[in-house]
Design brief:
This protein is of the alpha+beta class. It folds into two domains: 3-84 and 237-255, Immunoglobulin-like; 93-229, C8orf32 fold (Roll). It has helices at residues 93-98, 112-119, 125-139, 153-159, 164-177, 232-235; strands at 3-24, 34-44, 47-48, 52-55, 61-67, 70-82, 141-142, 161-162, 182-188, 198-205, 208-212, 224-229, 238-255. α3 runs antiparallel to α5 (164-177). The longest helix is centred in the middle third of the chain and has 15 residues, at 125-139. The protein is globular and about 60 Å long.
Length: 272
């Protein structure tokens, strides 16, 4: 039986001050078990732009566009239908290596002493991940506008607050520091309040990938993957590739026609 999962609508407004190339990463990833009906549109000075869709790792999608000075309006809307349960994804050797290395926002090597003293003696991957997610939930305060593009997991641990990407970066850095491969996923999250793009961590448990949300802001089973990578540098919804443009407005709406499931955030959950 086919069950509708969610609809999503996003609108990004930019003020372009000089000719600019942008990569926009807001489209739902084409994962097994999902039927996706969507539309991506970019208007520059009221004129439709030609965009190029690029397929990235884990079936993620980016749209490459070039904008001239003036207003730029990017609109994305989608209806996603799940026609099969999310399937467990095995961890490949290449993925395992990449997910254990330090990265720009997850400097696991700088956090090894803290991570090993707090979580390194736990007997297995699952217990370490649960303890790290609980630590982040209990010790970080979710607070908007308290971190920026330079904030990494060390900054977040010391500050004690952040937004979803900061929670995910801290979980990823601490997990990698105790030998648990971890990556980051950008998602649409029905039930999130206030509504925004959302970021969660995925860890390797017994050779498979499972999702964790240390903010506990939305049920994981209803989340829809946009992009996957080492940290926010890989899953950013907008990347400026040349020129100058300022994001001046953003609206994100995600809705589910069904009642959202409960999530205790302790069990293994596969992200589609």
């Amino acid at each position: 039986m086919t069950v509708s999962t969610a609809t999503a609508y996003g609108q990004l407004v930019f003020d372009v001050s000089e000719p600019t190339w942008l990569a926009v990463q807001v489209a739902v990833a084409r994962r097994t078990g999902l039927d996706i009906s969507d539309r991506f549109e970019a208007l520059n000075n009221g004129v439709p732009l030609t965009t190029q869709e690029l397929t990235g790792p884990h079936q993620g999608r980016q749209h490459l566009l070039h904008a001239d000075p003036g207003p730029l309006l990017v609109t994305y809307e989608t209806a996603v239908t799940r026609n099969a349960p999310a399937t467990v994804e095995p961890v490949t050797p290449e993925q395992r290596i990449a997910a254990l290395l330090p990265s720009r926002y997850c400097p696991a090597d700088r956090m090894a002493g803290f991570a090993r003293s707090h979580f390194g003696r736990l007997p297995n991957e699952l217990e370490r991940v649960r303890a790290i997610c609980t630590y982040a939930w209990e010790h970080l305060r979710y607070q908007a506008d308290t971190s920026g593009p330079a904030t990494d997991a060390v900054d977040t641990l010391l500050a004690g607050h952040g937004v979803c990407r900061d929670f995910a970066h801290l979980v990823a850095a601490l997990c990698r520091a105790v030998d648990v491969p971890t990556r980051i996923a950008a998602v649409y999250a029905p039930g999130l309040s206030p509504m925004d793009f959302h970021v969660v961590a995925e860890t390797a448990i017994n050779g498979n990938w499972y999702a964790w949300d240390a903010t506990r802001s939305a049920p994981r089973t209803s989340m829809i993957r946009i992009a996957t990578g080492r940290d926010a540098a890989d899953v950013a919804f907008i990347s400026l590739l040349g020129g100058q443009a300022e994001l001046t407005g953003m609206q994100i709406t995600v809705a589910s026609p069904d009642d959202l499931p409960l999530d205790a955030h302790e069990e293994l959950v596969v992200l589609g």
